[in-house]
Every structure is written in structure tokens, then in C-alpha cells.
Amino acid sequence: MAAAAHAKLRLAIGFVKDRASVGKAILNKRSGLSEIEIAIIRATGHDNSPVDDKYMHEILFLVSNLPDSILFLAERISRRLNTTRDCHVALKALLLTHRLLRGGNHGFECQLRSAHFSGHLQMSPGQWFTRSSDPLVCFLHKYAAYLNERMGWIINPGGKLEPVTAPGCDFGCYRERSLELVFHRLPKCQLFIDKVLECSPYDDLPSDRLAQAAMCNTLKESFLVYTAFCEGVAALVNMFFDLTLPARVIACDILKKASQQSLKLQELYGKCKRSIRIRNLEYPSVEVMTLDHVKALEECLSNIPTGVCNSLKSTSISKHLHSGMDKLDEVRVKMEWKEREDARLKMGLSYSSASFVSWTMETKISNVWVVFEDEDAMDSS
């Protein structure tokens, strides 16, 4: 009874605060901006219900008519998050940010991301929410950490999530795209999955209605990233025997982590199916890569001295990408075909493994005539 009375009192006081904040925003009478602030206050009210989509659409409509209002929107959401003492209001401010990031067009998404990286949109809970044993407060901090990582990803025209690449990084040929997928995107996918696992731990799922709504959005995005994760693992396994020695050392470390993550994702998705009230989620079938597969690959490195392996592990992946494979040819280990086949059989994997996405070569036909040196000499004679 005391808890119920306390909850009702909290809602009543929160309702009064929201009405006062709305009245203050109306008195400001700034052209268009006051409507944005009112929509933010109403979307992040003190009740325990998820963010209503009508407020998100209202904000997107108002911002589209005021192109210079993105920074104002970001600052008002940040102020709402930093000044409130109510955990539900803070969580709804993060949820609103996530919904706007998912619901806006490409231009709005880029501007909101720029506002975050420039410091106008801050997603760290305020000083009132120190880390404690309260499950909802713990989830609030983990969800904020997830959203900070999510800002480094963008929704492509196909509706899939992909990490934001630096300007000028255009991987044209098949070899460059393969390396970019394996040594750049796959580690980014693994970092993203780590944040999902921390935000939604399978051993302690939050039962709060608002927290489960946030988890639902997080799980939906993890399904998209898991597809890219599988593609990266498949490409890495297929090209492993053609990599240079430093690249193989890096690949083994990546595959070890992939093995652990696939097992944790399988457990998380299994528990979420049973405990989350939202039933319209289409969970992917997680393919678990066991550590036995990785150990079979590590046997290819067993004859290398320990000091060499340790020095190779410190090689930067980005440096490996930009310096190219040709600079590492002096340490390339050439294996016989029979040795390759034996290792593949030990792993139980092949290039056409049904557990992973296939990786096919690309053929380009050129219509440009090439004059060879001998033909040029004959013409001159």
C-alpha cells in the first residue's frame, strides 16, 4: 500500500511539473521553437508509458519546417535528461532520442549525429543517477552507453545498419572490400554486440515496461547487425588460408571473440523470447561457432615462435588495411594444398559451409583495348 501511494504521489507531482514546464515554454513564444520544446516535455512525461509516436512525428514535422532547429532540439533533450530526478523521465529522453534517430530521414539522422559529436546532444544521465543497485538505474546507464555507440552507425538505403565510414574511404576492388568487411566492419559489429549484451544481460532482464520498450528497439537493431556479423565471420573463415601471417594472428583473436559472442547472443535471444512481453520480434537463428573451430585454425600458427606471435598481435588493424597486404609478403607462410585441406577438415568447415554466408568472387569485363609492349614495337618497325 505504501509503495502504491508513493507511486501515485510521484505521478501527481510529476504532472504538476510537466504542466509548469509547458506553461513556461508557451510564454517564451519563440517562433516554432516553443512548439518543439512542448512536444519534448509531453513525450518525456512522468508516467511509465513508452514514448508516444505522435510526439516523435510532431517533432520531426516541426524540425522539417525549421531547418536550423536541430541544435535547439538536441539541447532541449539533453537538458531534460540532465535536470530531471525521475528515472522514468531520463529513460524516456533517451528513448525519444533513439526513436528520432530511427524515424527520421537520412538528412535528419546525419544532423542529429553531428549535434551529438559536437557536444550539443549529450546522452549521459544527470548527477542524480549515480550507479547503484537499482536495476532501472543500472539499465539507464547501460542504455545510454549503447546509444553512444549507436551514434556511430547509420541506416543505409537498404534499411540495414552499417558503421559510418570516414570521408574518402572508398573500397573499390574486391580485395579492398573483402579486407574492409573483415578487418573494419567485423570488429565494429563485435563492439556493437558487446553493447547490446551489456544493455540487455540475459541473466538480469529488467521487468519495467519502459525498459522493455527500450530493449525492444535495441534487439531489433541487433538483429540487423548480426547479419553483417555473420557475413564478416564467413568472409574471414574463407580467406584465412590466403592471409599473411600477421593477419592470421589478428583473425584468430577476432574469431575467438566471435565464438563467445555467438553463444551469449543465443542465450540472450532465448531468454528474451520467454520474458519480453512484446511478441512481434523476429529473432534470427544464431549459428554458434565453437572454440574447437578456432583451435583448429590456431594449429596453423603453432610452429611460429611465441615472441613473433606477441609482436604480431600488437599490429594495428587499421595500419594493416591502409598499408596493404603487399608490405607483409616478406613474412608470408606458404602452405601446401594438402595441409590446407587437412586443417579445413579438422575445423569441420569449408568454403561452401551452410552455417555461414557464402563469399563469391567478382568478375569485371573491360572493353578497353590494351596495347602490349611487343605489339607497339612491331608497329614502330
Automatic annotation (TrEMBL):
GO annotations of cellular component type: clathrin-coated pit; clathrin-coated vesicle; Golgi apparatus
Domain called ENTH: residue spans: 28-161
Its localization reads:
Cytoplasmic vesicle, Clathrin-coated vesicle; Golgi apparatus; Membrane, Clathrin-coated pit
GO biological process annotations for this chain's record? endocytosis
Output this protein's name: ENTH domain-containing protein
- Which residues are the signal sequence here? none
Q: Which UniProt keywords apply?
A: Coated pit, Cytoplasmic vesicle, Endocytosis, Golgi apparatus, Membrane
Stored PROSITE patterns: ENTH (PS50942)
